[in-house]
């Protein structure tokens, strides 16, 4: 698809879903540090088990310094509700150590310094952390620090691809940049696009048997026009 056609589709999608779901204010769903660690725990893990692992960890070790100083085996055991607890335990302790050594933190474990960082620098710093990918980094920077980035999860990717905004050859990694280039560089607009496509992918444009009869996007959707109609 030509870029101008994809641009037309994404802006129309944004407009339709704003009307369909209602405009949202940009509000953090949880404080920044928890957003980061919880998103790291969420990889291949459902929300209930992610929460269980997070609270197990803090109840067992008290605070982030306690988590950092914990024996690896004990931390992995506390994270058992999440998938790959050993890998996540190792990554969390590495991340905490890096934060503690950050000059701006003066020995404290914090990510507050990200708020004043340039968007690209903050994105580069976060994605260099073990266990932190582009999706985790962009979620944190958009939700908590109102940076103009575009988080792409499985729902945002699937819906954007079915509509025809993304090509079949585009990857989720590339989609962060492709979608961002076509949307207004306003954190509130980016947040609404992300959340609306997330909801749409969960409720209507589901992976198996999408509920096209309930979808307000069928007139511009490639999947509906080429496969369903």
TrEMBL record:
<dbReference type="InterPro" id="IPR003265">
    <property type="entry name" value="HhH-GPD_domain"/>
</dbReference>
<dbReference type="InterPro" id="IPR004035">
    <property type="entry name" value="Endouclease-III_FeS-bd_BS"/>
</dbReference>
<comment type="similarity">
    <text>Belongs to the Nth/MutY family.</text>
</comment>
<dbReference type="InterPro" id="IPR023170">
    <property type="entry name" value="HhH_base_excis_C"/>
</dbReference>
<keyword id="KW-0408">Iron</keyword>
<keyword id="KW-0479">Metal-binding</keyword>
<dbReference type="InterPro" id="IPR011257">
    <property type="entry name" value="DNA_glycosylase"/>
</dbReference>
<keyword id="KW-0456">Lyase</keyword>
<keyword id="KW-0378">Hydrolase</keyword>
<dbReference type="GO" id="GO:0140078">
    <property type="term" value="F:class I DNA-(apurinic or apyrimidinic site) endonuclease activity"/>
</dbReference>
<keyword id="KW-0004">4Fe-4S</keyword>
<dbReference type="Pfam" id="PF00730">
    <property type="entry name" value="HhH-GPD"/>
</dbReference>
<keyword id="KW-0326">Glycosidase</keyword>
<keyword id="KW-0411">Iron-sulfur</keyword>
<keyword id="KW-0227">DNA damage</keyword>
<protein>
    <submittedName>
        <fullName>Endonuclease III domain-containing protein</fullName>
        <ecNumber>4.2.99.18</ecNumber>
    </submittedName>
</protein>
<keyword id="KW-0255">Endonuclease</keyword>
<keyword id="KW-0234">DNA repair</keyword>
<dbReference type="InterPro" id="IPR003651">
    <property type="entry name" value="Endonuclease3_FeS-loop_motif"/>
</dbReference>
<feature type="domain" description="HhH-GPD">
    <location>
        <begin position="41"/>
        <end position="203"/>
    </location>
</feature>
<keyword id="KW-0540">Nuclease</keyword>
């Amino acid at each position: 698809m030509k870029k101008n056609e994809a641009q037309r589709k994404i802006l129309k999608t944004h407009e339709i879903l704003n009307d369909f779901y209602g405009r949202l204010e940009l509000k953090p769903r949880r404080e920044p540090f928890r957003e980061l660690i919880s998103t790291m725990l969420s990889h291949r893990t459902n929300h209930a088990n992610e929460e269980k692992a997070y609270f197990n960890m803090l109840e067992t070790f008290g605070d982030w310094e306690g988590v950092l100083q914990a024996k690896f085996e004990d931390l992995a055991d506390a994270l058992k509700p999440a998938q790959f607890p050993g890998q996540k335990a190792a990554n969390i302790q590495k991340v905490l150590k890096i934060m503690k050594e950050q000059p701006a933190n003066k020995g404290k474990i914090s990510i507050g310094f990200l708020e004043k960082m340039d968007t690209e620098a903050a994105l580069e710093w976060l994605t260099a952390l073990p266990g932190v990918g582009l999706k985790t980094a962009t979620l944190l920077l958009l939700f908590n620090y109102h940076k103009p980035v575009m988080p792409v999860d499985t729902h945002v990717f699937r819906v954007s691809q079915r509509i025809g905004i993304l090509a079949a050859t585009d990857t989720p990694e590339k989609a962060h940049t492709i979608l961002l280039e076509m949307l207004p560089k306003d954190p509130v607009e980016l947040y609404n696009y992300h959340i609306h496509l997330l909801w749409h992918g969960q409720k209507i444009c589901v992976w198996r048997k999408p509920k096209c009869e309930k979808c307000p996007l069928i007139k511009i959707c490639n999947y509906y026009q080429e496969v369903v109609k």
